[in-house]
Each structure stands twice: as C-alpha cells, then as structure tokens.
Amino acid sequence: MQNITDIIEAYLKQILHDEKKIEIKRQEIAERFDCVPSQINYVINTRFTIEKGYFVESKRGGGGYIRIQKIVILDSHDLLDEMSRWIGNDLTEQAAEDYLIRLVNEQLLTRREAIVVQSLLQKESLPMVVEDQRRMRAHLMQTLLKTIKRL
Amino acid sequence: MQNITDIIEAYLKQILHDEKKIEIKRQEIAERFDCVPSQINYVINTRFTIEKGYFVESKRGGGGYIRIQKIVILDSHDLLDEMSRWIGNDLTEQAAEDYLIRLVNEQLLTRREAIVVQSLLQKESLPMVVEDQRRMRAHLMQTLLKTIKRL
DNA sequence: ACCTCTCTGACCATCTTTGACTATTGTTTG
DNA sequence: CAAACAATAGTCAAAGATGGTCAGAGAGGT
Questions:
Q1: Which residues touch strand C (CB under 7 A)?
Q2: Angle separating helix axes A37-47 and A4-18, nearest 10 degrees
Q3: Residue A81's pLDDT is what?
Q4: Which stretches in chain B have pLDDT values below 50?
Q5: Torsions phi, psi of A119, nearest 5?
Q6: How, if at all, do strands A21-24 and B21-24 pair?
Q7: Which residues contact A100 (CB under 8 A, 6 or more apart)?
Q8: Alpha helical stretches, state H, A19-129
Q9: Contact residues for B10 (Cβ-Cβ < 8 A; gap 6+)
Q10: Which of A30, A151, B35, B133 has its CA 20 to 30 A from that of A84?
Q11: Which residue is nearest to nucleotide D19 (CA to C1')?
C-alpha cells in the first residue's frame, strides 16, 4: 500500500463507504496527492472498472467533474459474459431474437425492453449490406450486454 | 455546479417551475450574474433546446426580450410525431440523450429503457464515420419512436 | 534479464466564458 | 417620412478550464 494508486484508491473507496456516489475534480485530487492529473485516470481505469462494480461518469470543460458510483453486480454476470463470447462479432436477426428471449427469461430485461431492442436490431433498422448488418448487430448486442451489467 | 451556465440554468428553471413562461432581458440577467450578455445565449442554446422541451422566442431592439416556455404536448402520439420531424435524418449523441430524457419525463419510456437505448446510440456503439453515425443514430431513433407507438 | 504494474507528460477532446462585431427594432430628429 | 441614434439580442471565433489518451520511462518482483 505504498504506491499512490493504492493510496488514492483507498481514499476514494473510504468515501464511497459512506456516500453512495462521489464527485471529484481531477485536478484537485491530483494536487492533494501531489501527482499528475492523468494518474487519477489510471486509478479509475484500473480500480473502478465496471467489472469491479463501479460506474464512472465525467464531464470536461469548466465545471468539469468525475463521478463514481458503486453498482450492484448481477448474479447472471457469467451468463452475460458467455453470451458475449458466443456472439463475437457476427449476429443474425433470428439469433438476436433468441438471445433477447433468453435475457427476458432470466429476468435481466423486461419484455418491453426486449421489444425495443429487437426493433433496433431488425434488418430494417440497419440500412447496410447483410454482412455489415450482422457485424453491426453483434456490436450493438455487445453494447447491450455491457449496459445490462449496470442497470 | 459552480459554473455560471449551470447556475443560470437552475435559476431560470426554478422560475419556470412556478410560472409556465418567463420573459427576461438578456442584459439584466447578465448583470445579475455578473457575466457577459452572450453567456445568456450560451445557456439558452445548450440548456433550453427543443430536444429538452423548451420553446424560445426573442425580440431585439428597444423593449427587447427573451421568452422561454416549456412545451407541453398533451397527446403523446403527437409528441412522437413532432420528435420524428425534429430529428429528420441527422441526430447527435447529445440531442439523442435529450430526447430520451424527454421521453422518460413523458413516461413513454422507463429510465432503464432509456439507458439501454442510449447506450446503443452512443458513438462507441456505431463504428463508422461521424456523418454516417449521425444518420444511423437518427434512423435508429426513428425506429424507436415507431416502436414506442405500439408498445 | 524479463514481465507486469505504476507513473509521467505531451498532446487531444470537450465544455465554458468572453468580447468584438453584426442584426434588428424602437425612438428621436431634421 | 427618412435618417440618425439608441437599445436590444445574435453570432462566432478565440481563449480558458477541465478531463482523456497513449506511449514511454520507472519500479518491483521472479
């Protein structure tokens, strides 16, 4: 626990223990721990990832900030990872529908949510040649799986 | 929330909470918050857009004013049609988010649904050049609006 | 030595603030 | 009434204020 990364990590987690969400200014934290600002990005990228159960938002410019909140990781995390692996970067419309049905059955999505997503993944919504469509559909589904983790 | 833009935004919205329409003088507001007049234009252009559900009118010259009102579209079918028209075939990520927030406020989508859709419309989910991205995003949003009608 | 994790800094992206210049409308004057 | 003047608001580009990225240097362990 001697390196700055660990120290900053501990500092932030200690605050998160009390508050369910914190908002920091990158520059301020960097000054407080006497390091370069990008160090804060490193801490966040290695210690506050979605896999570790954190959701991070930020804004640049005047009045900018970095916001971190703890999220609940679903039990079905493994299912999502597996699906992600199965899908890879190619997905047909039928397969997409099957996956969505599965997600609804697992109660990871509501029926309405599945309908919305399905409509966005159907070929009519993806105006491009079929191979691109399938790649695009896979890409969108991958995004969905990631998003579900923080719902 | 220390930047002037957010402060002025909050001030105006707080008034709009009680009055359904406000009329301000640009110079006056600028003085009250000790900023340049064009700052007020910035606030209006970024925080009181049509996507966010505001209608702004103004007049120059003696007795000039800026009038802001919250747009109320009672019939949700009409709202969806209006949005569809506003969007056309070009949509930025920020505008998309604003529309989704609006849909949530109008209770046409749940928060979760909006988050899912937003994640699918963000640039990371649309691997193509920016112009195509915007066209694609508009296309997907149009699909969404159509889908909502039959949910 | 080699590998992995950490740290740094130059450069990039985005949002905000400012001010000079422009456009429009109302009022006064010749 | 037209021209000048006054009073507003709009536009836009540059500067300021943040946060993000990435490649390479540094440090610690095997």
A1: A 3-6, 35-36, 38-39, 42, 46, 59-64; B 3-6, 35-36, 38-39, 42, 46, 59-64, 94
A2: 70
A3: 87
A4: none
A5: -65, -30
A6: unpaired
A7: A109, A114, A117, A118
A8: 26-32, 37-47, 77-87, 93-105, 111-121
A9: B1
A10: B133
A11: A60
Indicate the DSSP class of residue A72: P
Is residue A69 predicted with pLDDT exceeding 70?
yes
Nucleotide in closest CA–C1' contact with B45: D10
Which tokens go with B80? 């969806």
CB B71 within 8 A of CB B21: no
Beta-carbon contacts of B119 under 8 Å, excluding residues fewer than 6 positions away, are: A143, A144, A146, A147, B125
Q: Is the pLDDT of residue A72 over 80?
A: no
Query: Is residue A120 a contact partner of residue B117, using CB atoms and an 8 Å limit?
Result: yes
Task: Check if the beta carbon of residue B30 is closer than 8 Å to that of residue B36.
Answer: yes
- Here the tokens at position A104 are 């609804």
Whether residue A125 and residue B140 make contact (CB cut-off 8 A), yes or no, is yes
Burial environment of residue B27 by CB neighbours within 10 A (0 to 12, 13 to 18, 19 or more): exposed
CA distance B131 to B133: 5
Helix (H) or strand (E) holding A57: strand A54-59
Tokens of A23: 């908002």
Ordered DSSP codes for B10-65: HHHHHHHHHSSEEEE-HHHHHHHTTS-HHHHHHHHHHHS-TTTTEEEEEE-STT-E
Helix or strand holding residue A54 (H, E): strand A54-59
